[in-house]
Amino acid sequence: MENKEKFMKEALKEAKKAYDKLEVPVGAVIVKDGKIIAKAHNLKETKLDTTKHAEILAIQKASKKLKSWRLLECEMYVTLEPCSMCAGAIIQSRIKKIYIGTLDKKTGAVGSVLNLFEDYTFNHKVEVEKGILQERCEIMLKNFFKMLRKMKKESKIE
Question: Which of 23, 55, 75, 81 does the annotation list as catalytic?
């Protein structure tokens, strides 16, 4: 197994933690020098805070660990394509490369809806690789939303 699959599996474990909390199942890990330095999952619903996306939380943890907001030579593995808020934070934190599990056709800001990494001139360029364990990432998201729809339907009936 390649390292990128190994690290995406760790991001999927984080996504499962979010799923179990009825959060949109997105997980992120940040790696430096071949070692995970931060892990996080969505906590938007739990914390009632729009900014509690997996990517933002992972960036905060990595910055604290490295004692720097500059995450130079770090890579991020995330199960779902980042939104514009998270893509902006990835640029600002100077992450070197991001590995994405699956695309987000509704709010993705790394190529699906817009592309903050390529369509605009920022002082930092982020490398991107997409489709890492894509099917596993997609299945988790599809199952989550299927479960939510079922829960909503059942609550209306009773």
Answer: 55
Residues 81-138 have pLDDT tens digits of 999 999 999 999 999 999 999 999 999 999 999 999 998 888 899 999 999 999 999 9
* Backbone phi and psi for residue 65, each to the nearest 5 degrees, phi listed first: -65, -45
**φ, ψ dihedrals at 129, nearest 5°:** -135, 125
Cα–Cα distance measured from residue 99 to residue 155, given in angstroms and rounded to the nearest whole number: 38
Catalytic: 23?
no
Q: What CA–CA distance (Å, rounded) separates 119 from 97?
A: 17
Question: Distance between the two ends of the chain, CA-based, in angstroms?
Answer: 47
Tell me the HSE value of 118 on the side-chain side, using a 13 A CA sphere. 9
User: pLDDT-derived band of residue 2, with 50, 70 and 90 as boundaries?
Assistant: confident
- The reported pLDDT for the residue numbered 158 is 55
How far apart (Å, rounded) are the C-alpha atoms in residues 37 and 10?
12
- Quickly tell me which residue has 């490398």 as its tokens: 127
What are the DSSP calls for 94-108, one per residue?
T-SEEEEEE--TTT-
